[in-house]
């Protein structure tokens, strides 16, 4: 049977469509599926009626050693939709647990995601390819295992935007529409996203074993993570303490990078904390428009647990849960184990501070380090919050402001409800800039390289999505173009740098998957 008229096949039916005769273009490895059976459930992705490509990420495909042309075929479409499992894959749903909004949930797991396998990228790093929205698994509980198209589009855009900003993140290899409907508050089109992650192991994966009293499982998982992701730590005096410290350091570093681009993850539960320090699980995320430290858009986060300025504390809280799972591995002596955990967790603050403070100085154009620099930047943030200034545009326009005089400040100060507040700050800033040795043109270029013109604003996700529903992919294409190079100006898409008009403001974000 030709692939172009492939019918939905039975779940275990891997041969009907001729897949066995065809060279498998993916060449997956399946190391996670070699772990003990209790680490996952073997599953088959669900069949969907009428899949269509919305996007294939050619750049990422090449990074993964795949030929983009071979991914834009009908055979690949059937793989990305879940209709066909490549011969080299060994599809599984991973088991994990987690603390959600501070409450222990003993079993979560991949309820709507299927890990196909791993690919070795051009840097020699093994990366997971997972289909999200691929149907029910033993972990689905009450869910349907499907994804609605809107969150698929949002995750594709969000993770690709994050990557182009230089912040560690999972990636999006492809997204498809399924031709099926999913039932949420209403009936919506469905989609599947192919997510690429350096690891899908989460803090919640460790908790799953630790809190079930499965110490052997914790050790096997820790050894797997060390082997695959942190081989350099295996030579440390205490590899498990080194693992805790390195995960802590990376997570502190990651959260600081979020804060520097105005990003709010929105649902930093322990099951959404990657063991390799990547942004993962784009649900109710947002890049802020006007700056407020307590900004929180998630419709389910009533208490603001995961508000913008809470993120460092919450990340640290999550890492404490990780540390607890490792205690028995850290020492046979309980007190010594606790001390080792405290010491390792101590890596958070220095990692966060180093990245955040250096980033803040760079964002206001300071190359040398002088006393009061960070306070100067924090004072700007305070004024931005008071005057509802747009986070991204303020720093971008500040990049273009003249170091010597106020002549071209008009567009910049207009971002502040009371422009005099900016003027007062600039009276501190310009004398400080004057103490820098570098030329003003170099300072501007350096600032433009750290202060993006484009972030994924919430109202633009809706515009792209509405376009897709109307059969017009041009808003999606335009958005992907600017987000791929967020530090360039793209004058032809200047509208995509703009904050929402009053009637376009999105106040809530939803997991909604
Ligand atoms: P998340 O909100 O992505 O962190 O997911 C939390 C848990 O809910 C995970 O175990 C997911 O697999 C599960 N889940 C979310 N949406 C669905 C769905 N549509 N069907 C089944 N399980 C789901
Ligand atoms: Mg999750």
From TrEMBL:
Keywords in alphabetical order, please: ATP-binding, Magnesium, Manganese, Metal-binding, Nucleotide-binding, Nucleotidyltransferase, Transferase
List, from the UniProt record, the residues annotated as the active site of this protein: 271 (proton acceptor)
* Cofactor(s) needed by this chain: Mg(2+); Mn(2+)
Report residue spans for region: Disordered: 1-23
Biased composition range(s): Basic and acidic residues: 14-23
Q: Where does ATP bind?
A: 109, 111-112, 132, 144-145, 195, 202, 281
**EC annotation?**
2.7.7.-, 2.7.7.108
A Pfam family reported for this protein in Swiss-Prot or TrEMBL: SelO
Catalytic activity field: L-tyrosyl-[protein] + UTP = O-(5'-uridylyl)-L-tyrosyl-[protein] + diphosphate; L-tyrosyl-[protein] + ATP = O-(5'-adenylyl)-L-tyrosyl-[protein] + diphosphate; L-seryl-[protein] + UTP = O-(5'-uridylyl)-L-seryl-[protein] + diphosphate; L-histidyl-[protein] + UTP = N(tele)-(5'-uridylyl)-L-histidyl-[protein] + diphosphate
Q: Which of the seven top EC classes does this enzyme belong to?
A: transferase
Per UniProt, Mg(2+) binds at 272, 281
Role according to the record: Nucleotidyltransferase involved in the post-translational modification of proteins. It can catalyze the addition of adenosine monophosphate (AMP) or uridine monophosphate (UMP) to a protein, resulting in modifications known as AMPylation and UMPylation.
Q: Which family does it belong to?
A: Belongs to the SELO family.
Task: Identify the PANTHER family for this entry.
Answer: PROTEIN ADENYLYLTRANSFERASE SELO, MITOCHONDRIAL
Name of this protein: Protein nucleotidyltransferase YdiU
Organism this protein belongs to: Rhodovibrio sodomensis
